[in-house]
Amino acid sequence: MSLHNTNITSKNYKKLSIQVSLNGFSFCCFDTLNNTITAFNEVVFDTQQKQNKIEELYTDAFKKYPELKETYDDILVIHSNNLSTFVPAALFDEDYLGSYLQYTTKVFDTDFFTYDTISNYEMHSVYIPYININNFLIDTVGSFDYKHVNSILVEKILEASKNNDDKKMIVNFNPDHFEIIVVQNQKLLLFNSFEYEKPEDFIYYVLFTAEQLNLNPEIFHLELLGTITENDPFFEIAYKYIRNVSFLDVSALQEKNHYTTAQNQKHYILFQS
Length: 273
Known about the structure:
alpha/beta; Nucleotidyltransferase, domain 5; about 270 residues; 9 helices; five-stranded mixed sheet; six-stranded mixed sheet
């Protein structure tokens, strides 16, 4: 999806990606000639700040980063929330976007629905974007395209599963929810998002999903991504109940930047957007 204004710029081989949420945002600047990351920053709104309107929080934060005032050939805004689902192309009807979300998300008549087309895999990602943040950004950075975070995530995971006939489960952690993706040789077998509070919530959903897909915890591979680390109790409980637990391999991604393995896992989506 695109939002445009009348700004016209000459090509300078620079791209900006901004991953937005209600808790803050992160952004990444790319050199598109060399396919490398030239700058990265993350902004987290604290509890007191969240009492302000989201547009005010973004306005104040944007003033602190000169990179956000520069000119780019392309700007991509990535909406990060758990208000999305995937629909096979054969079952997709653009006139009924809200109906695809109503069984997994509380939707309202005033919600704005949109979708991303994932043409290589004959499906669409239907989601609710942050319209107020889009409106702020069109006034602040000008024209941009926007996508849902899970559109990029699932497409990258499907690409990485090519020629691998083993079923693999990937869990992408966020501060208050996580996604479970199960793939097999570029086929999406399952996608779902779950809210959590405790490690027990996490392992319950993982084991329940495994049971539904006949995945043996002694055999299947669980790969972790996002905000989870090796030292936290979520990793420990996964390792207790599942034999093959690891972090998603980000070595190829890391060759394009100078950030740590942990940062490449946490910002996996943003860094290759």
